[in-house]
Design a protein that fits this description.
Length: 334
């Protein structure tokens, strides 16, 4: 079966870079949603805990239940609030405040113009009033940038909007509320960071998605995907391999079948433009559900160790390449 290897050294290198940017390891909230972007949520949580990360972010209660004991607090982006001392819940519309249980730790998501989720800025006073009336616990207030990775004025005015949000919350008399707006891109591009936490996902996994004009902080991908040899055969000149026989041997070749395929989350793509594996070998013919063919006799083959390069090949982003990897693949720390 295919294996995912996670490099502890590379992870700790990335965390060091991020701690330099945020000013402290205590300010890094590790985003572990979607099985830690496909890296494996429990394994990642353990490594992060060992390094001293205290804050986590996940998508739902199910993910939180797997890791919550390892962190001071885990923010849940999209689920029903429960009473739990170590869990806080994103509130993304006023309606949700009406049903929130007293005593639950709530973090208001404010829509500063991304228009995906969040309470509109002009509704904020009403939301704060409701929190007071119902005696709810306001633990945090946050927002999300839509263009943090682009060189434009958008980031600047969204940031200004969030400063306005902070003023409104403080003026309403709320104390000890934590504020956060940054993801990886906005933390990496910021010269000054003065918020309580930054919610860092992709950078921790080793990808800097900022274009060239920004300072290029070196990050190292932590995930590599490996497959084992299943069988080997000679392909005579002119013989074809795999579904549809898309690949025709231009000469006599020794090829092997390796145990990874689209069933594991490796993109199938097109056999006309095959993925080139880490060591320079192309996949021969079509990707099957559980197998690929390659001109190699190695017992173990690295499929990729840089999801950004794979993403470029498939015209997508590194996030989608790693997140597609199925949770049943074995994962190990190296
Ligand atoms: C996924 C997510 C992040 C992390 O984004 P990266 O670009 O991976 O750093 C931060 N905040 C919210 C609200 C998210 O949904």
């Amino acid at each position: 079966m295919a294996t995912i290897k996670i490099s502890q050294n590379n992870l700790y290198h990335n965390l060091n870079q991020l701690a330099l940017k945020s000013g402290s390891k205590n300010k890094i909230a590790a985003v572990l949603k979607d099985n830690a972007y496909g890296h494996g949520i429990e394994l990642m949580a353990k490594l992060l805990h060992k390094w001293g990360i205290k804050e986590a972010v996940v998508i739902n209660n199910q993910e939180a239940n797997k890791i919550a004991p390892l962190f001071q607090n885990t923010l849940i982006l999209n689920d029903t609030p429960t009473l739990h001392p170590k869990l806080s819940y994103a509130i993304t519309e006023i309606k949700a405040l009406k049903h929130a249980p007293k005593g639950a730790k709530l973090e208001l998501k404010v829509d500063t113009e991304m228009h995906r989720n969040g309470i509109l800025m002009h509704e904020l006073p009403k939301a704060l009033e409701l929190i007071k009336q119902k005696g709810l616990k306001l633990y945090g207030v946050f927002t999300h940038y839509r263009s943090a990775d682009e060189l434009s004025s958008e980031f600047a005015w969204q940031k200004a909007n969030f400063e306005e949000v902070k003023n409104i919350v403080r003026k309403a008399g709320f104390k000890g509320v934590r504020f956060h707006s940054h993801n990886s891109a906005s933390l990496l591009r910021s010269r000054e960071f003065n918020e309580d936490i930054a919610r860092v996902g992709i950078a921790m996994y080793g990808y800097n998605e900022l274009p060239a004009p920004f300072e290029q902080i070196e990050l190292k991908p932590i995930l590599s995907l490996w497959a084992k040899r299943s069988s080997t055969r000679v392909l005579k000149k002119g013989q074809r391999v795999g579904y549809g026989g898309d690949f025709r041997a231009p000469k006599d070749m020794i090829i092997s079948t390796y145990d990874v395929g689209y069933g594991d989350g490796l993109f199938r793509g097109s056999s006309k433009n095959p993925l080139i594996l880490r060591d320079g070998l192309p996949i021969l013919g079509r990707v099957s559900m559980d197998f690929i063919s390659v001109e190699s006799i190695k017992e173990e083959l690295c499929i990729f160790d840089n999801a950004q390069q794979v993403a470029k090949h498939f015209n997508t982003i590194s996030y989608e390449i790693t997140t597609a990897l199925k949770s049943q693949i074995e994962r190990e720390v190296i």
